[in-house]
Amino acid sequence: MSLLSFLTRRLALAIVVLIGLSILLFLIARVLPGDPARIALGPRAPEYAVEALRKQMNLDKPLYTQYYLWITSLLKGDLGISLLSRRPVQEDIKEYFPATFEEVLLAAIILSVGGIGLGILAAKYSNSWLDGIVRIFAYLGIVTPAFVWAILLLLIFGYWVPIFPIQGRFSPGITLPPTITGMLTLDSLLTGNWATFWDALKHLILPSLALAMAPMAQAARIMRSSLCADMGADHVYALTAYGVPENRILTKYLSRLSLIPTISIMSLDIVSLFAAAFVVELVFNFPGLSRYGMQAILNKDLNAISGVLLIFGVLFTLITILIDLIVAYLDPRIRLQRKSI
Amino acid sequence: MKTLNLNATWNSIKRSIYKFSRNKISVVGFFMVLLVVIIAIFAPYLAPYPKHAGAFVDYKNASLPPSLAHPFGTDVFGRDILSRVMFAFRGALIMGLGVIAMIVPVGVLVGLIAGYYRGTWIDTVIMRITDIFITLPALILALAVAALLRPTLFNSMMAVAFAWWPWYARLTYGMASSVRNEVFVQAAETIGASKAHIIFKEILPNCLAPIFTKMALEIGWVILVGATLSFVGLGEQPPTPALGTMVSDGAKYLPHQWWISVFPALAIMFIILAFNLFGDGVRDMLSTEEV
Amino acid sequence: MAELLLNIKDLRAGYKVYGGLLKVLDGINLKVNKGERIGIVGETGSGKTTTAKAILRILPRTARIFGGEIFFQNKDVLKMSKSELSVLRGQGISMIFQDPTASLNPVFTVGSIISDVIRYSRTLSSSNKSSQIKETAIDAFKSASLPDANRLLTNYPFQLSGGMRQRVCIAMALATARDLLIADEPTTNLDVTIQDQVLRLIKELVDKKNTSLILITHSLGVASEMTDRIYVMYAGTIVEQAKTQDLFENPYHPYTHALLSCIPKLTGEGIAPGIPGRMPNYLNPPQGCRFAPRCPRVLPICEKEKPPLIEVEPGHEVACFLFTRK
Q1: Domain that residue B248 falls in
Q2: Region A98-288: CATH code
Q3: What's the rounded Cα separation, in Å, for the pair C222 and C248?
Q4: How far apart are CA A144 and CA A216, in angstroms?
Q5: Nearest CA among C308, C313, C273 for reference residue C294
Q6: Helix axes A146-153, A255-284, angle to 10 degrees
Q7: Which candidate from A244, A260, A332 shows the least CB-CB separation from C117?
């Protein structure tokens, strides 16, 4: 089974799962809150208005019809109108998604590079003082939730040593680049606007760091323990016996083996970054999709909630498939042996 | 392979305790967990100002920094933060233990069934359903569900349970489906053992170790999700103290009255650390290593 | 004229464990001349692998060397610097291990691994390195009788059979010229039918490339076919050493006798007697001769003093008080 057929299978599976997810979300949004029309209009609206809205929202039709109508308009790109912003949800998503995306992307880069690098260093110098420090920080880092990191970073870099801005995406007075991808950093890079790029990056750093710290500690820990466990393996002795230098063994042979479990765990962590962003964006007042989703949830904005959750569902499925592909590339045993799921 | 033997001998208990205690840090974790449990249960007797955990105001003593009288300081209503944190442990523990107690039987049962019927449509359907749930991270799903219900501790527990159960199903499924093909299971089938017997007496005991380990390790994370929910106002409502609520309330007063947020945050970390270390010890204890 | 290649003098080594120190090797003396093929024979746990790994200094971190010297081409291996060691491992000595599956990193192609081995042996000139490496690799596979060498380069270890994996390891070990090959139980994990092939391959390559050989095995049968001289090892000590034929025709040490009697006879005289007792506890090894607790001909002095290795016939040494004049 080659990588391609592996990919095709996963995609087909993903579509089935996403359909299931849409059903689940639909049920949650329709069944739980009681009366969506009443919620939309508030407790003081007159009964006839609520009744009219109910008809308009198709709430009088049977459940499966409602689902069918919802899904078909969804596939046309219509996610409904948001209660809060009074705009089509899909426009809100288009506006806010790139912000969260670049925030999480930066966090993912930080946590991968930092986590794997620290793990390798700790393993290389294992049982030395450096290793001890890394391990303690790793443990403390893992148990510190993202919002605590957010508050900590806010304190340190916002008040005590104010280097980074603690609010928003960009400073007032900055010229915004033309919207190519919607990501401020990328767009300003692509148009050569350095000032904007740095400004956007500075605004991204604190939220991304807050998101990245705990998973980075986790990745470092797993990488280190996997490397140390493999260090006593026969193939390491064999390579040493043939004269291959230690560093090469560590960075090429051992690392690839240890990357497999580390990256598998990292996939879960990266997806959770979007979840952690819900609170972190709140703390830093960062106008991203997670904050939008958070406000939608708190205000029972049903269309926005289902829209955001669906987008996340699609996104997470894609990320998981991507990481599975990477793992399959790293571990030939997975892609070249027939495995029943 | 062992079958479930409820009359564990004293020797094997002793050996398990030895395995647990080999890593000193896990022992520390055990005592930390013990501390959390004791504080939660005996909060009314241990807290210096038990009345402050309810509706209480004393503006004369509001926003006091940490001192001997108030080791964690007071909040804007004059309530002693140490006492409130101690009472908040109750909700946290109920959330953690309650959710785990709810989802483990359900998740494990589902996983066992899917594993036993591995390769059939039952397996496929169950696994696809769990796939649907785990597409979204637990926090997001729990947030969405909790927000659509009335904000109470019970509802937030339900929301978290709703999001978390599939992980146990998956774990059990993984173990059950590999154990299912072992020779001793086939042997039991050959002599005509009932399905129930095979599932509960042959397959289940061999899946227990990773399940227990996961349970011990995860109580802390469930409590964290619970704290995140209360951070945004879901879960227990004031005046009942909840750790997440205390952190978010105090966030407005950073950095000057830092103690209002920081101590509850540290308490959350303490709980997570405690269960993490304890869970590591449980994993060692259940490992099949020879000592 | 025999040129001394490897000279192990009074090597004492062991491992640090929770209860204390495992004093495994207790004064190993071993010589290998250029062009010789010697065998080290002993039970599991007798310290054969420890000796082998000590020579290349690839002992695990818990290992400790208490004393002794290992001279390779007149340089003390135990005192070598990192760069000297890499020359030793890249060009002087190479090793094949008991378990070929464990010796090959599962997520890399064998071609990738052997290329690194060749690259770091530093025996190639810097010009046109990668094609030279590839050529050398293919040559190595061919001389190990591995079919379709080109495609083999892109194979992963799990795609090969056990016998092929071991042959890949042999190819790697002898891809570049070596003075000494250490083979640590190379056929123990293989099917009997493959064992013969692999042993013959080793013999052929060692002859062709004029490489000396240390063959470690627990089987006297294997040793008898492959070696010129045999060292018999028990519990970290050399108990007897002789030319192969002399050892079989004229064994001295009681342990050697016992080993030989363990070989099942085709004439069907019942089950071999075996050797009662167990290996000594290395945490607290016996003060005197380490075989004394199990020896059927033990003398009172055996439990108090260690027997020295003395020559009882030309080229035949024994460490036993039965043959020492006191």
Answers
A1: 23-45+79-286
A2: 1.10.3720
A3: 13
A4: 12
A5: C273
A6: 60
A7: A244
Residue length of chain B? 291
Judged by CB atoms closer than 8 Å, whether chains meet at C158 and A237 is answered as no
State the nearest Cα–Cα gap between C183 and chain A, in angstroms: 12
Q: Which residues of chain A have pLDDT under 50?
A: 338-341
* A240, A245, A332: residue with CB nearest C107: A332
pLDDT, one tens digit per residue, over B8-48 is: 677 777 777 777 777 777 888 899 999 999 999 988 888 88
Q: C-chain residues within 8 Å CB-CB of A233?
A: 102
Of all residues in chain A, the one with the smallest CA distance to B251 is A151
State whether residue A94 sits within 8 Å of chain C by CB. no
ipTM above 0.85, yes or no: no
CA B261 to chain centre: 23
Q: Kindly state whether residue B190 falls inside one of the protein's structural domains.
A: yes
Contact yes or no for A17 and B131 at CB 8 A:
yes
Token couple for A230: 């493999």
Domain boundaries, chain A: 98-288
**B222 in a structural domain:** yes
Chains contacting chain C through 3 or more C-beta pairs under 8 A:
A
Sheet with strand C75-76: strands edge to edge: C20-33, C4-17, C63-72, C75-76
pLDDT number for residue C8: 92
Distance CA B287, CA B212 (A): 11
As a residue count, chain A comes to 341
pLDDT tens digit sequence for B97-144: 999 999 999 999 998 888 888 778 888 888 888 888 888 888 888 888
For the CA atoms of B83, B84, B87, B89, the dihedral, rounded to the nearest 10 degrees, stands at: -110
Chain A residue numbers with beta carbons less than 8 Å from the beta carbon of C77 are none
User: Is it the case that residue C220 has pLDDT exceeding 60?
Assistant: yes
The answer to whether C26 touches C282, Cβ cutoff 8 Å, is no
* Closest-CA residue to B208 (of B9, B3, B20, B23): B3
pLDDT at B291 over 70: no
Domain count, chain B: 1
Instruction: Tell me how far apart the alpha carbons of residues B104 and B100 are, in angstroms, rounded to a whole number.
Output: 6
The distance between the two most distant Cα atoms of chain B, rounded to a whole number of Å, is 78
Closest in A18, A148, A274 to B269, CB measured: A148
Please work out, in degrees rounded to the nearest 5, the angle formed at the alpha carbon of residue C311 by the alpha carbons of C75 and C258. 105
The whole-model pTM stands at 0.78
Residue B60: inside a domain, yes or no? no
Taking the Cβ of residue A24 and every Cβ of chain C, the question of whether any pair is shorter than 8 Å is answered with no
Chain B hits for A317, CB-CB cut-off 8 Å, are 135
Q: Are C93 and C72 in contact (CB under 8 A)?
A: yes
Measured CA to CA in angstroms, residue B17 lies from A340, B1, B6, B35, B278 at distances of 39, 21, 17, 19, 12
Between chains, do C107 and A245 touch, taking CB under 8 Å as contact?
no
CB contact under 8 A, B247 and A147: yes
CATH number at residue B220: 1.10.3720.10
The pLDDT tens digits for B126-136 are 888 888 888 88
- Give the nearest chain C residue to A235 (CA atoms): C103
Give the Cα separation of A32 and A20 in Å (integer): 18
Contacts of A245 in chain C (CB under 8 A): 86, 120
In terms of Cα–Cα distance, which of B199, B184, B182 is closest to B114? B199
State whether residue A130 sits within 8 Å of chain B by CB.
Answer: no
The shortest C-alpha distance from C95 to chain A (Å) reads 7
Distance CA B90, CA B39 (A): 8
- Counting every residue written for chain C, the total comes to 326
Give the chain B residue whose CA is nearest to the CA of A21: B132
B75 within 8 A of B253, measured Cβ to Cβ: no
Residue B69 domain-assigned (yes or no): no
- 8 Å CB contact of A244 and C107: no
CA angle C133, C104, A236 (to 5 degrees): 95
For B247, the closest chain A residue by CA position comes to: A148
